[in-house]
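User: Thanks for the earlier help. One more: Large ribosomal subunit protein bL28. Can you show the sequence and predicted structure together?

Assistant: Of course, both are below.
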Amino acid sequence: MRKCNLCGKGTKIGRNRSHAQNRTPRTFKANIQKVTLGFGKDKISGSFCSKCLKKMKGEIKKTALK
């Protein structure tokens, strides 16, 4: 199952609607990436959504500048 290790975001279920208003099931999948991130000597690996990756990379840059 595709799920973010940080926020828990995963697959959602919805429906397609045609012009004739027919309903068919569909899935909305989260943008999950398998990544290994380094924090100095420490490394974190796992599956993260793109939003959490942006947050983590921003935090890495902030700590590197200090």
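User: Great, one quick takeaway?

Assistant: The chain has a mean pLDDT of 89.
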